């Protein structure tokens, strides 16, 4: 019978009611010490294991949340997940992580599975910001929080970083270093980070009276390969850029690999700034300058908002938070001209 006993078997063995056994296993108190010891002994002898699904039939609370990300290979998402898991454990929750590989179809399948598992809430970086595919979650009344990307169709709490500010500051730094021919490897424009980082890039050029040159705009897909391809395309130009801004970490890795393969001297012939810090940033020579995001804090805040929605059923207005990025200046973005060079220019806003 070991491992297959149920609560009725425990009650029978201990010669008590099922309600009394329930009070003991759920730590509700109100049971005499001698009786409690008898029940615990019966549980041990029978190998009784509480069934989470059965335990939650009345409470409708599984203490489980689902987390959906578009690309588990992107180092950003495991760092966010670490923040989610830390806060989840502190409040007795368990998080299930799934990756969609940027597929809305896969995302729908995962959401269906989460619903069947009875998750209490969902934290999602969606593959489709339109959000109409999230209808099934909305109809079930399952709380949801969006991270990194907004959801248009439904009003859900959202946790973002200030992408416009981060990209603006990075491009501004390159401009103040004397660069005018600044290229960008963009992310998809149908995503919040891709769109907003391009806006920051354009705004910095506009504020410093620099022309937006279509030749210096490469449309990437947030993947390493597109960063590699982008660097090759920019290198092939007759009038090459003197600086590159990469819109995410994986494209940064691809871009830096290409720069090395092309023998395009990083920090000398081509300056560089990336969005998101990466492990290789401080191991390269020169070290990479980056826009760093508070990834762990993004995850912590996302869970906090979700937990509040789970605990307090009363509807409250949609909440949106934008955390500030940090500019980390290292060595990959250098002065376009030496300070005393006659070619150096003083750019003014």
UniProtKB/TrEMBL annotation:
Keywords on record: DNA-binding, Repressor, Transcription, Transcription regulation
Source organism, top-level taxon: Bacteria
GO MF assignments: DNA-binding transcription factor activity; transcription cis-regulatory region binding
Pfam families: LacI, Peripla_BP_1
UniProt keyword Transcription regulation present: yes
Domain HTH lacI-type, chain residue ranges per copy: 5-59
UniProt cross-references to InterPro entries, sorted A to Z: HTH_LacI, Lambda_DNA-bd_dom_sf, Peripla_BP/Lac1_sug-bd_dom, Peripla_BP_I
Alphabetized PANTHER family for the sequence: HTH-TYPE TRANSCRIPTIONAL REPRESSOR PURR-RELATED (PTHR30146:SF148), LACI-RELATED TRANSCRIPTIONAL REPRESSOR (PTHR30146)
Protein name, per record: LacI family transcriptional regulator
Lineage: Bacteria, Bacillati, Bacillota, Bacilli, Bacillales
